[in-house]
Amino acid sequence: MAHKSPHQQTKSKTARRILVNDRPGHPFEVQLSRKLAERGHTVQHCYGEFFQSPRGALEKTAVDPNNFSIIGIQLNKPFAKYSFFKRMFQEVKYSKLLVTQIKSFQPDIVIFANTPSEAMALVYWRFRHANVRFFFWVQDMYGIAIRKILSKRLSIIGRSIGQFYVRLDKYLLKKSEQIILITDDFRPLLTSWGIDPAKTHVIPNWATLSDLPVRAKANSWAKKHNLADKFCFLYSGTLGMKHNPELLLQLALHYQQDNDVQIVVISEGLGADWLQEQKAAHQLPNLTLLPYQPFADLPDVLGTANVLIAILEPDAGIFSVPSKVLSYLCAKRPL
């Protein structure tokens, strides 16, 4: 009797066409897309090439099935991540590109993860009469986050804009056929918004364990960056509005006179740019700043650390969960 391939062994009895849109291109989302394809579904994984973020394995490999594809969506201008109004117009452009991609692929199911509310809303409206099922994989409470941030910056106007995004999130949650939350902590908020609990499910995020083997400190990446013989505090990931890069600066200042200690920050964008300015102003050779590293290097990057750092503002816990901690745990290093 002939042996079945792994793909045949797990093939779904009812194969679907599934489009997964995860704009940052994070590791575990694309791992899910691969697993769905292994089960016999035809899967297209979309991400934003223009978006600054740590990324997963977004190149198709020789072992990927033929029913799996990866599409990078690109804008014609740099993404204005920290300019609210410019970003809003670019989200509209992004939503139009998503509509084009969905029309081309013709999925039965679209799973949205890490997709801004305004882009999702325009896609939902465009396909409101189509036979497409939308699943909302809620990674952050986007509207709550915007309301908190803009209320601090723009007072009454900021609260009004934030409240618009909260209403937009309510609309998307009500229109989604299924909702996947990453924590039970989001449930009370959805209940207060009148979201049907029968269509709400909790699946915690995970680390791509098979891609993150434990590595020794004196690895090739550490040696390349002259870190193999240093005690390293290492931060890798986004430094956005829900983080405080000042904490990393204070850590570097604290160990400024200790030549055996190095603070390593791997990030891009506003927070990383600010740290670059502070490094020059305070003359901090013990602060190493690097751009996002290739996903294949991540095991060595994490292995270089003696201590790994995660940062989240106190009130950010209401609307966000720091998934980088899961990858950190794979390295078997203190946090």
From TrEMBL:
Signal peptide: none
Gene3D superfamilies: Glycogen Phosphorylase B
MF annotations from Gene Ontology: transferase activity
Domain Glycosyltransferase subfamily 4-like N-terminal, chain residue ranges per copy: 31-206
Claim: Plastid is one of the keywords in the record: no
Entry keyword annotation includes Heme: no
Keywords from the named record: Transferase
Name under which the protein is recorded: Glycosyl transferase, group 1
Classification of source organism: unclassified sequences, metagenomes, ecological metagenomes
